[in-house]
Amino acid sequence: MSRDHVQSSERPGTGAEAPFLELLARGASADAYEQPVLLARAEGLPAERIGALEEARRLALRVRAEMEGRRRREAELSALFETAHDLAGLRDLDAVLQAIVQRARSLLRTDVAYLTLHDEAAGDTYMRVTEGSVAARFQQLRLAMGEGLGGLVAQTARPYVTPDYFQDDRFQHTRTIDTGVRDEGLVAILGVPLMIGPQVIGVLFAADRRARVFEREEIALLGSFAALAAAAIDTANLLTETRSALDRLARANEIIRDRSAVIERASDVHDRLAELVLRGGGVHDVAAAVSQVLDGTVEFTEADSAPPSALEASRAEGHAVRHGRDWVAAVAAGGELLGALVLRGHPGLDPVDQRTLERAATVTSLLLLARRSAAEAEQRVRGELLDDLLDARDRDPRLLRERAARLRADLDATHVVLAARLDTETGDADQEAAARRRLWSAASHLAATRHGLAAARDGGTVLLLPLDPGDTATELARRTARQLGTAVREEVTVGASAPVGDLATRPDSVAAAHAEGLRCLDALRLLGRTGDGAAAEDFGFLGLLLAGDRDIDAYVRRTIGQVIAYDERRGTDLVRTLDAYFSCGMSPARTKDELHVHVNTVAQRLERVGRLLGHDWQSPARTLEIQLALRLHRLSATARH
């Protein structure tokens, strides 16, 4: 301030500065500085006084602008310092970029601020961070190089500003970008490049929803934030690369340690398996030893209990295969599947550990073959006992029971005789003989595990198996067909007899049951049901022809037993109604004349029959069986009377 001005302002009686100093002290708005001048004019003060007030107002506004500028620069420097501090302690890149965009929007007092980054894979840029944006389409914008104001900034590596986006033709407008900008309602946009060295990696923007001219200082400030943002991204990339390199080194060290441990485990399992073989260990001992080495649960399962697809793949490839979270290694000898070693819940398996599991499967197959050799002698003894029962050579019950007890069989239990036969003909006698041997071997193994007997006979195999409570001859035949078929990997057809008992005292019943099983076997093959199992009871009235004892009462009970029982309990005439119905050609009208009842009565009785026998009782196959059962029932009733 000049000396003359100071002297002028200090002239007595002026006091023009006082109201403006008060306004400066309380940080009043620029509009408030008009009030003292307006008030002086309203009071009619002299022109000299009003002139002094106007001069004081001008000086006060200059001071106020200077103070405002310093406060703004202080805020800007503070924001830049805070951002640099965030960058120095970088932990979360997204959080740092979000803070930069928020501070840029706040200091530039814009409606929106946002930051885009270059996508090298896609060859364009995408929105990374937005602040103040409300339009979803704008937040998901992607800009190709050279498109829009941002594309121009990225292409030229220079800041660009437009006071009115849609009226500016310096950059390339596209429908996608213009639609996003219009959705957001932006008008004035300032963009500055994010640079790492000479490379532009993105653009930082500040934008308003009204026309606006951005000052040089504002452009410089946004550029400073852009430099910090670029530094943050560069630092994050370096940290990522460093962490990745450290991770790779750590992984390499881990692999080296694991390889060393794997080699030690492989040596350990080799020693353990050799020891097991030398001391005659079993398959479950092998599984337990491998479980310890592989730090998992290894189980031996029979071939029919292992996952079929995985088991077949392992047998074909000669390696353990993955099945879900498990590993399956086939235990095979020649073309025969003996079972599998299954490593449970261990989806990630090192190649050396996989080889350990495969080696254990090989050792298991050797042990099983050794055990089979020992068991074949027992199987021959079982076959000899069954041959004696079939031929009725030894009729002394005590001797039969003693021989069976040594084989852990109980001749006093209820048994079923099953005739099993392969249904594939190769035309090669040697191959067919080998297939029959495999069938006999599999049947002998099944008989031994079920405490039964098995023997090779008539080009097939015959089994004598105990019947469990609640089981039926049909279910046993079908189950046996599946088990033998899985074991030999060919279709096996099985015919079963009706249950027989007291084998020690009635050994001739075994031969009769065998003949019945053979008849069922032949019936299955004639009906095209190869690879299946069945008993006489499965063939309806044909079962009477197949059954050895012609159990007529059992057939009648199975077919119309519920109707007979209903008549006996209720005193009704459903059986007689059925007889009349069939004799009258299944005509309700003629049936009511035969029975001398109303046609509604006939309909009600037939409805009751349907509920007892099932909805398909009038199908051709069922009516044939029901008529035969009715005739047999009538004949048996006549014989009793």
Summarize the helices and strands and which ones pair or pack:
Layout: H1 3-9, H2 18-25, H3 35-43, H4 47-88, H5 93-108, E1 112-119, E2 124-131, H6 136-139, E3 142-144, H7 148-156, E4 160-162, H8 175-184, E5 188-196, E6 199-208, H9 216-278, H10 283-294, E7 297-301, H11 308-317, E8 321-323, E9 326-333, E10 336-344, H12 351-391, H13 397-406, E11 415-422, H14 429-449, E12 453-457, E13 460-466, H15 473-488, E14 492-496, H16 508-526, E15 533-535, H17 542-546, H18 552-570, H19 574-583, H20 588-595, H21 599-613, H22 620-640
Parallel strand pairs: 14-15
Antiparallel strand pairs: 1-2, 1-6, 2-3, 4-5, 5-6, 7-10, 8-9, 9-10, 11-13, 11-14, 12-13
Describe the structure.
The protein has 641 residues and is an alpha+beta fold. The chain contains 22 helices and 15 strands. The strands form 3 sheets. The protein has a 6-stranded antiparallel sheet with strand order 3-2-1-6-5-4, with helices on both faces. It starts with a helix and ends with a helix.
Short synopsis of the structure:
This protein is of the alpha+beta class and 641 residues long. It has helices spanning 3-9, 18-25, 35-43, 47-88, 93-108, 136-139, 148-156, 175-184, 216-278, 283-294, 308-317, 351-391, 397-406, 429-449, 473-488, 508-526, 542-546, 552-570, 574-583, 588-595, 599-613, 620-640; strands spanning 112-119, 124-131, 142-144, 160-162, 188-196, 199-208, 297-301, 321-323, 326-333, 336-344, 415-422, 453-457, 460-466, 492-496, 533-535.
